[in-house]
Design goal:
By secondary structure, the chain is α/β, with parallel strands linked by helices. It contains 13 helices and 21 strands. The protein folds into 2 domains: 7-59 and 403-430 and 442-462, Urease, subunit C, domain 1 (Roll), CATH 2.30.40; 61-388, Alpha-Beta Barrel (TIM Barrel). Bound molecules: N-(aminocarbonyl)-beta-alanine and zinc ion (2 copies). N-(aminocarbonyl)-beta-alanine binds next to loops.
Length: 481
């Protein structure tokens, strides 16, 4: 536990916020920031510890609003749970994550939330929060949606794909948006064309197609583009805020911009996989490692997404962290234990049975820093906005989270901007057997990570603990960015 009276001074770092960068000291009082300014050792309070951050950057802890931990899928489960995923997030400089609660097949939303708390609360090692999936709508569910606010959940996730499992019809999505609007809630949406996918998958299976590339071939980019526009149009007609998750195409980003320019209350997220990889990866022998939905597309799509980030037309970089082992028959060592969890090999003979999802929660900040800020595609202030401040604002946590200012939680990253390393599983600490960025050279990396004033990562030392992460009850009425 944090000593609630301990005063820690982080001296002479360069603070990077979403708005500006400046030299200052930060004085932490227990769990929160007490003061920011020059020469704070002379502030007239007794200081317990001084950390010299000369030459280092101080960032607000990363906030990843899109992770899937311990998520049942096909005949397995995503391989990071609410401890291992939190630990990996922390090593990468992220101190808050948001997970999605599956809607129970028959039960109430509250039962789903209770089940997710039972999985998460005792394991949580960083602060966390939930979104609620709405995958079946009837009068009882409509009536229950506003009650999610009492549980601290003001965000609803809907899908235009995954027919027969998760998808709602357009009229139902519109209804969810209307309810969300009435109660100051935010709808999040996975945009692909479920009907086209269903048709193309049936054709591919009938033809005997087995390889991972068919995952992308049966989920065409046009389906994502049109369903982004369709969803934005629904949001405009419901006058309800909408957040499109994991934009994977330049066209989808253009549709988002089109809608925003016409006053639609819409925002968007992309993820590292869509900025750095294309569907060519699925042609590799180990292509199953890259299977996620929606799939990665072309280099032109990558470029369009980068341009939208740089122009502040996409507001958040999340990860959609949903890892599976590549070879779940061969154990890896994790915190001294051998662990194997069935993974991508389940679809060795059938691309439709490969669990879809990728590791990424720990990669997000280091990769975006080196290949986004380092390459001059975005500024360091945009980096903080995309990975921390904007998600804090959009999801109702600001300024408790995502801010360097007095009274904010002392979720801080001391970032070494000149540290060089070759990235990969050794650093990412996801509980899986591969990393998409294996061997990528990085410049810039988290050195120390604080969660509410407690040092939880110190270089390669893990000082966090299961159960220390706190569930964040979020409020309705968050702003549109
Ligand atoms: O393939 C993915 N992204 N799996 C996680 C579920 C989702 O659609 O976000
Ligand atoms: Zn999705
Ligand atoms: Zn997802």
């Amino acid at each position: 536990m944090v000593d609630t009276h301990a005063m820690t001074l982080i001296k002479s770092g360069r603070l990077v916020t979403a708005e500006r960068s400046f030299e200052a000291d930060i004085l932490i009082d227990g769990e929160t920031i007490w003061a920011i300014g020059a020469n704070l050792e002379k502030a007239g309070v007794e200081i317990d510890e001084i950390i010299d951050a000369t030459g280092k950057l101080i960032l607000p802890g990363g906030i990843d609003p899109h992770v899937h931990l311990d998520l049942p899928m096909f005949d397995t489960v995503s391989s990071d749970d609410h401890y291992t995923g939190h630990r990996a997030a922390a090593f990468g400089g992220t101190t808050t994550v948001m997970d999605f609660v599956p809607q129970p097949e028959n039960g109430s939303l509250a039962e789903g939330v209770a089940e997710w708390h039972a999985k998460a609360d005792h394991k949580a090692a960083i602060d966390f929060s939930f979104h609620m999936n709405i995958t079946r709508l009837d009068a009882a569910i409509e009536a229950e949606i506003p009650k999610l606010l009492d549980l601290g959940i003001p965000t609803l996730k809907v899908f235009t794909a995954y027919n027969g499992r998760l998808r709602l019809q357009d009229g139902e999505i519109f209804r969810v948006m209307q309810i969300a609007r009435q109660h100051g809630m935010l709808t999040m949406l996975h945009a692909e064309n479920g009907d086209v996918i269903e048709c193309l998958v049936a054709e591919a299976v009938a033809e005997g197609q087995k390889d991972p590339i068919w995952h992308a071939k049966t989920r065409p980019a046009w389906g994502a583009v049109e369903s982004v526009l369709r969803a934005c149009a629904l949001a405009a007609q419901a006058d309800a805020p909408l957040y499109i998750v994991h934009l994977n195409t330049a066209g989808g980003a253009e549709m988002l911009r089109y809608a925003r320019e016409r006053g639609a209350p819409v925002m968007g997220e992309t993820c590292p996989q869509y900025l750095f990889f294309s569907d060519e990866e699925l042609e590799r022998e180990d292509g199953a490692k890259w299977i996620c939905s929606p799939p990665m597309r072309t280099r032109t799509d990558q470029e369009g997404l980068w341009n939208s980030l740089a122009a502040d037309q996409i507001q958040v970089l999340g990860t959609d962290h949903c890892p599976f082992f590549y070879d779940g028959t061969t154990p890896i060592e994790y915190e001294g234990q051998l662990v194997a969890i069935p993974g991508k090999e389940l679809g060795a003979d059938d691309f439709t049975k490969i669990p879809n999802g990728l590791p990424g929660v720990g990669d997000r900040l280091p990769i975006l820093w080196s290949y986004g800020v380092g390459s001059g595609k975005i500024t360091e202030n945009q980096f903080v906005a995309l990975t921390s401040t904007n998600p804090a604002k959009i999801f109702g946590l600001y300024p408790q989270k995502g801010a360097l200012r007095p009274r904010a939680d002392a979720d801080l990253v001391i970032w070494d901007p000149v540290k060089r390393l070759n990235y990969g599983v050794q650093y990412s600490r996801h509980r899986t057997d591969y990393n998409l960025f294996e061997g990528w050279p990085l410049t810039g990396y988290p050195e120390k990570v604080f969660l509410r004033g407690k040092l939880i990562v110190d270089g390669d030392r893990w000082l966090g603990q299961a159960g220390e992460g706190r569930f964040l009850k979020r409020k309705a009425g968050a702003p549109l960015l």
